[in-house]
Amino acid sequence: MHILLVEDDVKLGELIQYKLKKQLYQVEWALDAEYALDLMERVTFDIYILDWMIPHKTGIELCKEIRMKKNRTPILMLTARDSVTDRVQGLNAGADDYLVKPFDFEELIARLHALYRRKETNWEADTKIFGDTLVIDHSTFEVSRNGVSIPLSRREFQLLSFMSQHPKQILSREQLSDRVWGIDAEITLNTVDATIKLLRKKLDDPFSDKIIQNVRGLGYRLVVEGGK
């Protein structure tokens, strides 16, 4: 799950980002509405988490602008405002859910999961199955090939998960870096190559059929049939 967090409270933003990443989510963090809108133009996210009070625009104004652009990405509003009137205002602006500060992190995770499950048919299922070749379980972070369980690191799982969303599509090293590590991550493209190498060692080396291909000069692709 790729999440955009829009929160101007640095301490809270750092905490939310840290805890979400520990849950194996990919998280980008914007401190204001302008940077958030820029990220939305350049990156596809699964969920937006918007604070009510942010610089340049309020979370409500940002929410309305997102919906005016026909962007249907689920939105979770965070705010200290807990009156019924405020909640109605947020929902009427286009938010899908509303969480009052201070909140329990387990409740935040539960609400994110609920939004994820309610996404339209283009949302990714908990388990992605490519025939008998590859099975990716996003609820347990388990992967198997030809019935054989393959233990992966957190980053390897995130990389495979993203590639599985685009089977047979050539993905550049820059795309993989932005989506898996984050656009602000201080890594080189050699890090992408090294992680792909480790992933291929686990997913391809033990098997005769190779599913991760290196397309010289262009990037990498996951060659699997089907996907449901």
List keywords for this structure.
single chain, 228 residues, alpha/beta, Rossmann fold, Arc Repressor Mutant, subunit A, 2 domains, 5-stranded parallel β-sheet, 4-stranded antiparallel β-sheet, elongated, OmpR/PhoB-type_DNA-bd, DNA-binding response regulator, WalR-like, transcription, phosphoprotein
List the helices and strands and how they pair.
Layout: E1 2-6, H1 10-22, E2 26-30, H2 33-42, E3 47-51, H3 59-68, E4 75-79, H4 84-92, E5 97-100, H5 105-118, E6 127-130, E7 134-137, E8 142-145, E9 148-150, H6 154-164, H7 173-181, H8 189-203, E10 212-215, E11 219-222
Architecture overview:
Pfam families: Response_reg, Trans_reg_C. One of its GO terms (cellular component) is protein-DNA complex. It comes from Paenibacillus pectinilyticus. By secondary structure, this protein is an alpha/beta fold. Helices cover 40% and strands 21% of the residues. It contains eight helices and eleven strands. The longest helix is centred in the C-terminal third of the chain and has 15 residues. About 2% of the residues have low confidence.
Number of strands: 11
Which class do the helix and strand fractions yield?
Answer: alpha/beta
Order of helices and strands: EHEHEHEHEHEEEEHHHEE
**Mean of residue pLDDT?**
86
Number of continuous helical runs: 8
What overall geometry do the principal axes of the alpha carbons give?
A: elongated
| N/C terminus separation | 17 Å
Per the CATH scheme, the topology name of the largest domain is: Rossmann fold
